[in-house]
Structure formats: structure tokens, C-alpha cells
Amino acid sequence: MTAAALRIGLTGGIGSGKSTAAARLQALGAHLVDTDAIARELTLPGGAALPALRECFGDACLAADGSLDRAWMRAHAFAEPAHRAALEAVLHPLIGTEAERRAAEAPAGATRVFDVPLLVESGRWRARVDRVLVIDCPAERQLERVLRRAGWTREAALRVIAQQAPREIRRAAADAVIDNRDDDPAALAAAVDALWHHWVAAR
Ligand code: ADP
Known about the structure:
The chain is of the alpha/beta class. It is globular and about 50 Å long. Helix 3 runs antiparallel to helix 5 (81-103), helix 4 (70-79) crosses helix 5 and helix 7 (139-147) crosses helix 8 (154-163). It has helices at residues 18-27, 35-42, 50-57, 70-79, 81-103, 119-122, 139-147, 154-163, 167-172, 185-201; strands spanning 7-12, 31-34, 112-115, 131-136, 176-179. Helix content is 52%, strand content 12%. The site of adenosine-5'-diphosphate has 15 residues, from helix 1 and helix 10.
């Protein structure tokens, strides 16, 4: 019997470099499951989450094209914890089911990497993965990186950072932490490669 394929949960605060690390893991041969992409697809026109969201929040939560109105949802979910909980109660089980469906498409034995921005916050993921990898950097560096992206204001970036788990909590939940404070893509790639060797290649 060969060992079951390894399941890695990858997380990090916004702007930490998580997506960059995910791309590197994919290049190394991981089967990547992007839960952010799943969440987006579930809320596009015709998306599986829309009927339940409409029932919860009414037609006001839908944009003209029938997708979830993200700006409306952000304003409501961030303003009111009960709304956020209702949103998560709809989305998280659907994301979990779709993530498993995508993971099952991987070739037998391939390492599955679940890219989960709110892995630590949601609490559901720890038991579903064998290892948790955290990409870590100071909040000032997160902010700098997010502000380089189009469409972000300082206030919006700070609000998201404040809504996410603090660094220490995320780090405490990790089996491994990659320090990505330096703006040095080669160093991040090397750290991901070393981790892959340790957890996967030399297994
Ligand atoms: P996240 O997915 O955690 O929000 P990204 O991987 O998208 O973060 O990284 C945020 C931005 O910072 C991207 O533009 C990315 O290219 C850049 N970045 C991340 N890590 C590094 C690094 N080590 N060196 C240089 N730029 C980096």
C-alpha cells in the first residue's frame, strides 16, 4: 500500500505572498485547489451559492448581471458580524464540497495543496489537511504589497488586514512558516522548494 497523498493547507494574510507560493508549489507538481477562485465562481451569475444568499439577504445582494454584488456584501458583511456569519454559513460548506471535488481530480498520489485565505479563521480546515503552511510577513509589508494592486485604498487594505487573524495566531497554527518579509522572489521560491523537498520529495 502506498501512503495516502499528502494534503497541505496553505494560508497567509492578504499580501503575504500566499498566491506566489501557491504558484511555486504548483510548478513543483502540487495539485492546487484555490478556494478563493471557488468562492468567486459560486457567486458568479448562476452560481450555486446565489439562491441561498438571495434568501438570506434579499435581492439587494445581487448585482444587475445576477452575480453577488461584492461591494454591497462587503459593506454589509464587514459592518455587521451576524451578516458575515450568515454569508459564511452559506459559502463555507459549498466551498468545502467543491474543494474536495477538485482535489479528487488529482492524479493518485499527487500532493494536494488547498489555498485557503481564512484557514485559521474558519476552523474547518485544520482537520482536513495533514500540514498547514503559513506564508508570513509584517503587516506593513502586507499593506505595501496590497497598495501596489489596482483598486485598493489604504483604508480598504487596513480593514481587511484587521479582519483577518493576527500574525501570531496564524503562525501558532502552522506546521511550517515561510518568512516572506523581504522583497526577494528568489528567496521565497527557494524556501518553498526546501519545504517541498522536506515534506514531499523526501517523504
Ligand atoms: P497574497 O496571495 O498573499 O495576497 P501575493 O502572492 O499575490 O499575495 O503577493 C502580493 C504581491 O507581492 C504580488 O504582487 C507579489 O508578486 C508580491 N510578492 C510576494 N512575495 C514577494 C517576494 N518575496 N518578493 C517580491 N515580491 C513579492
